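Try it yourself: sequence plus BV8, in.
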Amino acid sequence: MGYDPVKFSAPAIVILTGAGISAESGLATFRDSGGLWEKHRVEDVATPEAFGRNPELVQRFYNKRRRRLGEVSPNAAHRALVELENRWPGPLLLITQNVDDLHARAGSQNIVPMHGELLKARCLACGAVSTWEEDILPASHCRRCGQPGQLRPHIVWFGEMPLELDRIYTALEGCSLFIAIGTSGTVYPAAGFVEAVPRQAHTLEINLEISDVGSCFKERRQGAATERVPELVGELLK
Ligand code: BV8
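Structure, out:
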């Protein structure tokens, strides 16, 4: 059953993206690396406890990924979502679990980076969040309070509260179309968003395989994001 935009007059669209939308830009997904990094489980590195125990290991994990951003570019899927946002007559919100900057670099405006951003650092001393494009080192000091050695990645780790949940749930409860792209549906609360939309909303998943919550979607489109997303956007805008 396809989505018929004629039935809805300028409905609200909510889009959730995961690592799969950035895969074809060359950024490894969590599952590709088998959820491992330097022989550590990501869940064991991306936690406040890991940061407390071994800050150098955690900073190295993020410094490496931050540096990688300079070597990759947005792909056709990121660009198709920009076209949808620019031409869709109703409200559209893009929620991303990704901490890369590819949606922003493609030109998306209405983005909620619910798990934080690689290109921002947070000061443990004064709480300031600032743009940070180079490595975070022990000597790095906060641009607001000047304190050295107090910076952490502005990333939501496992066990930490995702960002802008109120704004997210308000958008989900009012949407007519929920599209999940390139996410394995393994991490909550994002994996549960499909259950938070109105019963009559259309829900659609785009993925190479069926995700862990694939059965919760009314429609699934199997394939690569750079093919399936432009195709869907073409249908929605026709
Ligand atoms: C929370 C930032 C409370 C870090 C990330 C014990 C204590 C506390 C919490 C928990 C606990 N046990 C479980 C939990 C909940 C936990 C959780 O879900 N754990 C999992 C492991 C079971 N969640 C949390 O801790 C969250 N916080 O619960 O707070 C709370 C919550 C709500 C309300 C009140 C209180 C915080 C989770 C955030 C963790 N941080 N990211 C970083 O990036 O380093 S999560 C990180 O992993 C990503 O951001 C992403 O969300 C997740 C990986 O998922 P995906 O993006 O889906 O990527 P993945 O590789 O898995 O899949 C890629 C998919 O793409 C695949 O399906 C593949 O088929 C597809 N694909 C690949 N190529 C393509 C493609 N599709 C299309 N085209 C392609 N070319």
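One thing you can check immediately is this: The chain has eight helices and eleven strands.
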